[in-house]
Amino acid sequence: MAKEHSFFNDVYEVVKLIPEGRATSYGLIANYLGTGMSARMVGWAMNAAHGLPEVPAHRVVNRNGLLTGKAHFATPTLMQELLEQEGIEIVKDKIQNFKEIVWDPMKELEI
DNA sequence: AGAGTGACCACAC
DNA sequence: TGTGTGGCCACTC
User: What's this model's pTM, rounded to 2 decimal places?
Assistant: First the structure.
């Protein structure tokens, strides 16, 4: 454990910065962190983020805006519920206006 | 130390 | 929601 400067920590920091009503994708985070970071690693980090309530993993979806990780939440519907609560429209586990609500750290944080 | 796996992404068919 | 394959890096056995 000893978090130190693991990759996960960086991912968590970015995810925590995601504003309400917005969402981002694994690839965007990976692209933002760059450095050998791959989208799979972001997913892996999220897997470790399971016990971190401070990390809104429900705001992280795949590039299509599809809630691929919903199965990993407490309940399969929890992810959608949380997102809808923030005003995000979801149909069939997919964010409708994803490209409009997407929060790209590379643009928002401007490296 | 080699192989398998993963909450992905991009490309080809 | 099309399906299949390769690639990416870290972790586990």
Answer: 0.89
- How far CA A101 is from CA of A4, A45, A51, A97, in Å, comes to 32, 23, 26, 6
CB A23 within 8 A of CB A59: yes
Q: Work out how many domains chain A is built from and give that number.
A: 1
Give the DSSP letter of residue A107. I
Residues 32-91/A with CB within 7 Å of nucleic chain B are 38-44, 46-47, 49-50, 57, 60, 62-64, 68-69, 71-73
Question: Is A21 a domain residue?
Answer: yes
Rg (CA), chain A: 13
Query: Which range of residues forms the domain containing residue A54?
Result: 7-101
**Mean pLDDT for each consecutive 10-residue tract of chain A (111 residues)?**
63 93 93 83 88 88 92 89 94 90 89 58
